[in-house]
Amino acid sequence: MVDIAAQTAIDPAPPGGAVAVRLRGVTKCYRQGVRALGPLDLDVAAGEFVALLGPSGCGKSTALRLIAGLAKPSSGTVELNAHPAARRGEHAIGFVFQEPTLMPWASVRGNVALPLRLAKAPRAEIAARVDDALTRVGLRDAAEALPRELSGGMKMRVSLARALVTDPDILLMDEPFAALDEITRFRLNNDLLTLWRELRKTVIFVTHSVFESVYLSQRVIVMTPKPGRIAAEFHVASDEPRDEAFRTSVGYAAQCREVSAALARASSTEAA
Amino acid sequence: MSVARDPQTEARAAAATRLLRIALPVAVLVAVVVVWHFVVKLNDIPPYLLPGPGVVLRTLIADWPVLGASLVTTLWTTLQGFLAAAAGGIALAILFNQSRYLEYSLLPYAIILQVTPVIAIAPLLLIYLPQDTAVIACAFIVAFFPVLANTTLGLNSVDRNLAGLFQLYGASRAQTLLRLKLPAALPYMLGGLRIAGGLSLIGAVVAEIAAGSAGAGSGLAYRIAESSYRLNIPRMFAALLLLSLAGIVIYGLLALVSHLALRRWHESALGKDT
Ligand SMILES: Nc1ncnc2c1ncn2[C@@H]1O[C@H](COP(=O)(O)OP(=O)(O)O)[C@@H](O)[C@H]1O
Ligand SMILES: [Mg+2]
């Protein structure tokens, strides 16, 4: 059932279709020249759901910020749809942070509308697309609420709706459900999978949970401790669509065990 | 208090606390006035040394035509100084936020202006400026700095990820300022304005006193200086009372504005249990 667990540095050309995100020799050094990330080589195919799994502090957030163009790599290149990522704006990207990162003074509608307002989209279009995004995440009825009136899970849904409202090709998610209780997290996991099946966006999902990475993604990329590099990759085999039955299946448990072992190996070789 | 209490008891306790917070200061006030009255009466202290509360109140009523007009004058000066300080402080904070070089160039002088006692600057201002302008300038100098400092702090305390989001969606400088930085800074800005309200009254009073009896002014502080010169102690007290009341009203109004502006979303304006 489990496919490969190769120590490959570069993933062979993604199966079928274009490359949405391509990293080559990407490193990031913060002040005092300490390397926080890389070198990293990574290809993500259009429409693929990839999980980046690694211990905290290994540079997962840094990697996402580099892909989003929010920071510049110290060396190497980041390409989106075969164009340098520096030319942002041409490639719509959706970003979901670990915290909901909402504007507390604006309503749910105002928060979700933000990307379109910044792009000066026509009013009617904004209204229609915001309604659409809110319906997708199941928040149609909470449109006028303020963030403080929402639960943690609902805030995360607002954040997801905001990331979807521009209809981006690429969705970057930085441990979005890490702070939620398990019941809410499982429900959001399922809702995210449903969205991904419908919309077929390229998703790069950062997490430090082995179980979440295997449950959600088609491919798990295991990273080493700081500075984060790729230690191993796993293609997750499963019948689609996945649902709660997958979560309790023998195959799921086996793949989780394998990924866990790889994560432990990556950490221990580092410590040795 | 480890036993869980029913909501009704809870509500009654809250109401009692609220009542105490009003009743206790009022009781202190009444006590002070009563003690003041009897100290003056029992010791037969003449009004030109220490007028009793009754005399002060009667003076306030009798001299109302003079004192009322002075109150209006001082309040008008304070208002102008406050508005200048608010506009100046907020505008400077925005400029500093947009240009680091401007901040480096001007911030030291803003600080110097702030740390130099205004009572020492006032006489100079009175020489170089017409008196009403000088008084407003004093109120401005004392009051603008808290607005500047607080607004600057607010503009710089924007959530890093929210700022990243604006960058991701290609927001212009103006959009980031209007849609992100200014709303995020609003609670800080209002805190600065609350301090500035009281300070601009102090600035106005300091300038009126510095202008003294030589000045052509007619504000409350001028009345105090004038009454002191004429040993009209009851009127000094009456004017002082009005100044205090003005200060309290200004503070209360600004606190109210701040509450109304923030009550929908900011922690500081939300109830303790929401
Ligand atoms: N702005 C920054 N300045 C300096 N060091 C940073 C900064 N951001 C992250 N780091 C460092 O880079 C490393 C990776 O951080 P991060 O990407 O946030 O890790 P992760 O998301 O995997 O927990 C950490 O050791 C962190 O201390
Ligand atoms: Mg992180």
Describe this entry's structure for a reader.
The complex is a heterodimer of chains A (about 270) and B (about 270). By secondary structure, chain A is an alpha/beta fold. Chain A has helices at about 60-70, 110-120, 125-135, 150-165, 180-200, 210-215, 245, 250-270, and strands at about 20-30, 35-45, 50-55, 75-80, 85, 95, 170-175, 200-205, 220-225, 230-235. Chain A has 2 domains: about 20-90 and about 170-270, Rossmann fold (3-Layer(aba) Sandwich); about 95-165, no CATH class. Helix content of chain A is about 35%, strand content about 20%. In chain A, the strands form 2 sheets. A 6-stranded mixed beta sheet of chain A has the order 6-7-8-3-9-10, sandwiched between helices. In chain A, strands 2-1-4-5 form a 4-stranded antiparallel beta sheet, covered by helices on one side. In chain A, α5 (about 180-200) links the parallel β7 and β8. Chain A is globular and about 55 Å long. Chain B folds into 2 domains: about 10-45; about 50-260, MetI-like fold (Orthogonal Bundle), CATH 1.10.3720.10. In chain B, α5 crosses α6 (about 130-155) and α6 (about 130-155) runs antiparallel to α8. The longest helix of chain B has about 40 residues, at about 175-210. The radius of gyration of chain B is 24 Å and the shape is flat. The mean pLDDT of chain B is about 90. The interface of A and B includes residues 101, 104, 105, 115 and 166 of A. The structure holds adenosine-5'-diphosphate and magnesium ion. Adenosine-5'-diphosphate binds near residues 56 and 58 of chain A. Chain B: Pfam families: BPD_transp_1. Chain B: Belongs to the binding-protein-dependent transport system permease family.
